[in-house]
Design goal:
The chain is α/β, with parallel strands linked by helices. Helices cover about 35% and strands about 35% of the residues. The two termini are about 30 Å apart.
Length: about 220
């Protein structure tokens, strides 16, 4: 499942829950107060499932913290005095086993699917027939370099960012056409302006920015 779909499902569930709360069918505040650790665990699971271009550390961190708070809330373990030290221990383990310097990921597939949550991604596409894909960032950032890729005419890529940012680098011999919806966000096209007589491949970029930004350049 792509990051864009995960984001859509999140907004859909929240909207549905809020609607049922307004209709007095459920008590959303009570439900959240009892089960909010599951939200952290769900984030952890999403990070582990979608970690194509990142390590498992952040996903495990959310999963363990959520599990810790859930156990403390629903079982008589009296962990309140130990939660803070355990959190420091978990974070320390994550820091130790997280790579200090992440190398740029080489991508050779024709389609790109990148999901970033509370982290970052640095991807260099070397596809010989790049057709497009999706990039979703939530409270994170992504740098997508397509300058070594051969982009087919009419390729399209969806860029979605929420409280984050995406930097897209395209080859000099590609014309960019941008569409999208800015919601308290925006995008900036810094690519070279071309004459209408030039015959070059067209890359269609569909942007959805929510309190975030997209920059496209050569």
């Amino acid at each position: 499942m792509s990051g864009r779909i995960w984001l859509g499902v999140l907004f859909l569930l929240f909207g549905l829950g809020f609607l049922l709360h307004q209709a007095n069918i459920i008590d959303l505040s009570q439900l959240f107060s009892n089960w909010w650790p599951l939200l952290l665990m769900m984030i952890g699971m999403v990070l582990l499932i979608s970690r194509k271009h990142s390590s498992a550390s952040s996903g495990l961190l959310f999963l363990l913290i959520g599990l810790l708070f859930l156990m403390n809330r629903w079982f008589d373990l009296n962990l309140k005095a130990y939660i803070l030290p355990l959190l420091f221990i978990i974070i320390g383990i994550v820091i130790i086993f997280t790579r200090i310097k992440r190398e740029k990921n080489i991508h050779i597939a024709d389609d790109l699917d990148t999901f970033v949550l509370f982290s970052g991604a640095d991807i260099n596409s070397q596809s010989q027939t790049f057709q497009g894909g999706t990039v979703t960032t939530i409270l994170g950032g992504a740098e997508i370099d397509l300058r070594d890729a051969q982009i087919i005419d009419g390729a399209s890529i969806d860029l979605t960012t929420v409280l984050g940012g995406v930097e897209l680098k395209v080859p000099d011999d590609v014309q960019v056409e941008i569409y999208g919806i800015p919601i308290l966000g925006g995008w900036e096209d810094k690519t070279r302006v071309r004459r209408q007589t030039e015959e070059v491949p067209v890359l269609k970029v569909n942007c959805l920015t929510i309190l975030g930004g997209v920059e496209i350049r050569n």
